[in-house]
Amino acid sequence: MRNERTYRWADPADIAKAAEGLAGLDLLRAMAEGRVPPPPVGSLIGVGDFVAEKGKVSVGFEPAEFHYNALGTVHGGVIATVIDIVMGSAVHSTLKAGQGFTTLTLELKYHRAVTVKSGRLTATAKVITRGRDIVTAEANLIDKNDRLFANATSTLMILRPPSA
Fold it and tell me: CA-to-CA distance for 33 and 163, rounded, in angstroms?
């Protein structure tokens, strides 16, 4: 038997246009409130329940069979993507309008397997140091009982618009 999944995503150009002139935190809050659609990767992976404050972001993640690897658990790359989304968003929440970021490093530790039986998980990230160009963030992926499934640290670089 084959299963099927259908999903929709917003045009990235429309998201970029909606983001023009917004500081990072303002954009993230607009996404959380549904005024700006989430990036396509969030729709693909299935993250939701976005909560953003300056330097700290959390998202919900519902493990599903379509996330599984051949071993019958959620693929580590899916978990890494959820973690990268939330850490990048925490950094994004500190940026001025026109600034961007890119991930330089991601160190991720898996503590237990994630399956559909794990239930809804929450990924929370916070900025732990922020310099002019380099930011370090950390994140945890936990269940409703605060059991740790994964944790990570990441180094990200701030991208500035070209000088006029």
Answer: 32
